[in-house]
Design brief:
Radius of gyration of chain A: 15 Å
Mean pLDDT of chain B: 96
Helix content of chain A: 25-40%
Distance between the termini of chain A: 41 Å
Largest sheet of chain B: 5 strands, parallel
Helix content of chain B: 25-40%
Largest interface: A-B, 18 and 19 residues
Distance between the termini of chain B: 18 Å
Radius of gyration of chain B: 15 Å
Strand order of the largest sheet of chain B: 6-5-2-1-7
Order of helices and strands of chain A: EHEHHEHEHE
Strand order of the largest sheet of chain A: 4-3-2-1-5
Structural class of chain B: alpha/beta
Oligomer: heterodimer
Low-confidence stretches of chain B: none
Structural class of chain A: alpha/beta
Shape of chain A: globular
Order of helices and strands of chain B: EHHEEEHEHEHE
Chain lengths: ~140, ~130
């Protein structure tokens, strides 16, 4: 039986700040479609990515109400990726840095998000085939 | 597994965080058993300059009592046997030289980076 690929990602950017977040999600999308075991350690502003209270809004410049606008929310992307991973026989394990959560009052995360420490990051990275850091610049 | 952490973004939110977040992360993961060293590049070579003082920040009646001290944090890593490298060309560009630096940091020339990187299983660039 072939060994399952395990990848770890460290993300750092807060939502709605950088195209790096979308790129990271594209990589997670590919990895979860392939049934990989995928770990994410969300550090600093990235702990806001799965924040449950994100809310879409209307966009008068587009002439759309909130429903028509269907505003992208990173928490929904993450939820979809967690479900996609399971549907393809893998897992997406997302760990928010706990101190970073406390700093930002970001405790209300969507279902499936764990809170941890840098020790979790080291454990995930050291048991993965590779690790990609996508930092704030 | 050995990991080299390369810092490229310097002084990112150090006043709010009271440290550099990647230096802190390196300390924390080493505390959890990780084998990680540090390469300071760009403006972050200044973390090894001893004579810097970030004290004195205040807003209204709020005073920062625990300012960041990057040289202290770098020295703490070195004291715990971490290797901390400074990119020599970036030091020269910023006018940072030996007498300015805390003891124990290891200048390295750009041309020697391939050999350094090759010593590590993974390289994480922040």
């Amino acid at each position: 039986m072939a060994k399952t690929t395990t990848l770890t990602f460290a993300l750092m950017d807060a939502p709605f700040e950088s195209a790096r977040t979308t790129t990271a999600m594209r990589l997670l999308d590919i990895a979860t479609r392939r049934g990989y075991e995928v770990n994410v350690f969300a550090y600093e502003g990235a702990v806001m990515l799965p924040f449950a209270l994100q809310k879409g809004h209307l966009n008068l410049a587009h002439g759309n109400d909130a429903e028509q606008e269907n505003h992208p929310l990173p928490k929904d992307w993450i939820d979809a990726l967690i479900r996609q991973a399971e549907a393809h026989g893998g897992h997406l394990r997302w760990v928010n840095c706990g101190l970073c959560v406390d700093e930002r009052g970001a405790g209300e995360a969507i279902e499936g998000i764990k809170t941890g420490t840098p020790a979790d990051f080291w454990q995930m990275a050291s048991t993965s085939d590779n690790t990609l850091v996508i930092p704030t610049q | 597994m050995r990991v080299l952490q390369i810092i490229t973004s310097a002084y990112r939110a150090t006043m709010e965080e009271q440290d550099d977040t990647v230096v802190w992360l390196t300390q924390a993961m080493r505390g959890a058993g990780g084998e990680l060293d540090l390469l300071l590049t760009g403006d972050s070579v200044n973390y090894a300059v001893a004579a810097q003082d970030a004290a004195g920040l205040s807003f209204g009646d709020w005073r920062q009592t625990q300012p960041p001290s990057l040289p202290r944090d770098i020295a703490a890593l070195i004291a715990k046997k971490a290797e901390v490298y400074l990119l020599d060309e970036d030091c020269q560009e910023l006018g940072v030289s030996g007498p300015d630096l805390i003891p124990g940091v290891l200048p390295i020339a750009r041309g020697d980076l391939p050999e350094l990187l090759d010593r590590y299983d993974q390289v994480w660039r922040w």
